[in-house]
Design brief:
The chain is mainly α and about 220 residues long. It is about 80% helix and about 0% strand. The protein has 12 helices and no strands. The chain is globular and about 65 Å long.
Length: about 220
Amino acid sequence: RIIVGIPVGIVAAAKRGSKADVAIIGVSLLTWGVPVFFLELVAIFFFSYLANIHGIKIFPTGGGLGGPYNSTIEFISGAAYHLALPILCLVFAGFAGWALYTRNMLIDALTQDYILTARAKGVGERTVLFKHAFKSILPPIVTMITLSIPGIVTGGIINETVFGIEGIGKWYVGALSMANPDYPVVQAVLFIYATLTIMFNIIADLLYGVLDPRIRVGARR
């Protein structure tokens, strides 16, 4: 999501008002408003239709990671093939927020006085975009990236359940079963999530001080 969303947001900000910008905003708003489980169900229906009716098998639509595999290479390639559709659904459903956030912050940065000064000095537009504007918005972006990492633990709950992938998310859902609840598992997953949240909050604070010199100056005082 991050790897796709941030570059897309940069492109939209650099081409503000163009057809590319309008298209990016439209697609982002559309995917942002669609629940990820709905998108995954539509993807499963579409690729199952292609495979069962037309014999065109592009992606597996469930069943975990496949197998059994006879070697590490087979396992890696097979797992990557089976995870391709779940990952694409997560990226398509989640890149929009990053793209819109990056675009809005970058457009705001491009209207600042120091950007006008850099352009008046004859600095190239690419340098203005990346070395001046984008560099100024790095602290909040890095903070958001850091704080989103703990979501890896809980973010796969719906994905793993829909596609039948064995992982922490599916393990957690199984532990919440009313017929046979497993409370130690629930506690363990929540403990891991809470620990990661605290740890990455601290890392975000430290990184913010590294990226923003004003924070370091204030700390010395």
